[in-house]
Amino acid sequence: MTQPGTAPPRTRSTTGSPTGTATHCPYCSLQCGMRLERVGRTLNVAPWAEFPVNEGALCRKGLTATGLRGHRERLTTPLVRDTTTGEFRATSWDEALDLIASRIDTLQAESGADTIAVFGGGGLTNEKAYALGKFTRTVLRSSQIDYNGRWCMSSAAAASNKAFGLDRGLPFPLVDIETADVVVLVGSNMAETMPPAARHLDRLREAGGQLVVIDPRRTPTAERADLALQPVPGTDLALALGVLHHLLAVGAVDEDYLAERTTGFEGVRLSVAAWWPERVERVTGVSADDVRRLADLLAAHPKAMILTARGAEQHAQGTDTVLAWINVALALGLPGRPGAGYGCLTGQGNGQGGREHGQKADQLPGYRSIDDPVARAHVAEVWGVTPESIPGKGRSAYELLEALGTDEGSRALLVFGSNIVVSAPNAELITQRLEALDLLVVADIVLSETAALADVVLPVTQWAEETGTMTNLEGRVILRQRAVTPPEGVRSDLDVIAGLATRLGSELVFPTDPETVFAELGRASAGGAADYSGITYDRIRDERGVFWPCPATPDDAEPHPGTPRLFADSFGTPDGRARCQVVEHRGPAEPTDSDYPLHLTTGRVLAQYQSGAQTRRIKDLPDTGAFVEMHPLVALRLGIEDGNLVTLSTRRGELRAPARVVTTIREDTVFVPFHWVGVNRLVNDALDPSSRMPEFKVCAAALRVGGHR
Ligand SMILES: Nc1nc2c(c(=O)[nH]1)N[C@H]1C(S)=C(S)[C@@H](COP(=O)(O)OP(=O)(O)OC[C@H]3O[C@@H](n4cnc5c(=O)[nH]c(N)nc54)[C@H](O)[C@@H]3O)O[C@H]1N2
Ligand SMILES: Nc1nc2c(c(=O)[nH]1)N[C@H]1C(S)=C(S)[C@@H](COP(=O)(O)OP(=O)(O)OC[C@H]3O[C@@H](n4cnc5c(=O)[nH]c(N)nc54)[C@H](O)[C@@H]3O)O[C@H]1N2
Ligand code: SF4
Ligand SMILES: [Mo]
Predict the structure, then answer these.
(1) How far apart, in Å, are the Cα atoms of 608 and each of 7, 33, 219, 601, 625?
(2) Which residue puts its alpha carbon closest to atom 5 of ligand 3?
(3) 335-365 pLDDT, tens per residue?
(4) CATH number assigned to the domain with residue range 79-151+355-547, chosen from the 4 options 3.40.309.10, 3.40.1710.10, 1.10.3720.10, 3.40.50.740
(5) Closest ligand to Cα 218
């Protein structure tokens, strides 16, 4: 937490003077601190040892992140698609923005305000996410805005809001892992997805603590575990019910805590009665002994921490799965106890801040609900519009995309910070929807697979070339500082938004200076759950950041210190109590059958990031292409050898890729990373009923050797 008045920490060079610009990695939610140093024409990544989250450590992606600077595939001029040849041609910014504005005017005159949709990203800075939400609601007057965070941690966010009345991924600093007795990771491969954070796991174990990892694959993270459980994909909910059943059976629940700090446990108590460990074994494939072992471990240690990530969340029952684990945490009295509790390991660089300031369909800045009249009035005042003019709730990410170009959906889409063609589920259908649009505009730094389909491509600045705030997985608001001048011809997303607002005749102010936008965002967030109004750039420059909520204080008072730890005395619900919720296990939306006998799950490898738009272009990162990870028994049965080309199919499509035969995966499951085009054509689009999260983590698949039909 920032101590106002203390000198900014500096890395010293060998000559003793501070070097480089203190900033943060462009990729994941750890937002590792780094220094960018100019040496001649190159920009080097150097450690920033004092930044507490990573203490100078960086993964391969962070270390090579400057590789996109000066890259030959970097976009430096706007492109428009020539209507006669169908090819892109370079154009001026004025022509590109004029064209977009006139197309928007025409389409809206024909089909109404909602015909223009906007798709944002959890990698965008807080300032950009805020400006995008404001632009969509005030200039476009469209309700149709959502973002890729819906595909990330939205089930955990929905569950935390339901149970705790507040969603901050981790309600405590990550370093608290080291002081726990037991840490349970449900569906997180932290050693590959946030490598510097795995130090906390090592230190936990050095201090005598124990690690439990729940993952259908024995990952590098699971290699560190004292107890590694490998459930059938999509059965974590049943596992949690079984753990709670056993905790009740042995009398290990904290009845005082439940009585004082929660409501609803009686229903939960009844609902887990039938989930005895032997039944759980039949559903999950985890032995009854291991179910009891996990429950006993939790019962024996007061400082237990349960952390979920995408493996547990990216399911059609993701919200209920997280709620089931939150019930376990509440039954043990963990939330609010130092060194204990429940948390979600958010994924994208600004996965936390990106879900707080209004690029989500149902949301206004400060993590306010767009349905709340008080919130609407407050934000309308900051924006200088009437509350009635702010549209209502729009469609969720997948539903928005699925409707594009149809009678019900929008005719135009503006994309900022997502590579939908690679990362959306049921990607073949979604690609067709993008192709059916009257206008597709993509702002990006490279010609991603999505940008390649656009009518207009806008080249924007990348992280090291611009300043802005990010909120990491702990709720720590930090400042990314500009370290180099952007190449000629590119503009920031904030410039794009302001340029379009002016051309669309808006009289509202869209500042392009990020610090000015942040001050406005602070005012808009004031009084909301995610209150940033007490945070200024000066407080977080070269510093360790400030945890929200951080409300503004009167001029003569001390600044609010920020809130590293939440829930010590009360939760974010109206009565301050957490809500225990009854949840039922249903299992994957698409069960296996004789035609599709395997579970397909998807996820990440260490050296690639997301859709790969950025990391596949960095030459120092291995670019293996997709592969199908399978157990030797599956390979033997189908006559497959390691490295053979195989065809993986589901009810939606096929993928041809080499086999990777490993003993670390379940025999009924195959795994494919999603960093390359292809696997998402196979992935199911079943949605969670409350978070609208697609079921990326399990669908039914068939496998055969060879690449021919
Ligand atoms: N290297 C790298 N790091 C990243 C990213 C990246 O693309 N590459 N992306 C960032 C982002 S946006 C995110 S969201 C995070 C994601 O971080 P993680 O959640 O750690 O990553 P995933 O690989 O998606 O999923 C984690 C694990 O879930 C397991 N899993 C699959 N199905 C199930 C299931 O049904 N139950 C359980 N318990 N586990 C299951 C998979 O085998 C996988 O090992 O990573 C962030 N960091
Ligand atoms: N099968 C499967 N699919 C998945 C997942 C999975 O586990 N399995 N995980 C899901 C998850 S958790 C996530 S988060 C999504 C992520 O998937 P995407 O939304 O596709 O995420 P990125 O690849 O990070 O795309 C970001 C794009 O924005 C560009 N960009 C970067 N910075 C900026 C900027 O400042 N401004 C603008 N305008 N553009 C910028 C990048 O070059 C890139 O093209 O994928 C989801 N899809
Ligand atoms: S762990 Fe995440 S933030 Fe840290 S260097 Fe790697 S990608 Fe960047
Ligand atoms: Mo994510």
Answers:
(1) 36, 19, 16, 17, 10
(2) 62
(3) 999 999 999 999 999 999 999 999 999 999 9
(4) 3.40.50.740
(5) 1
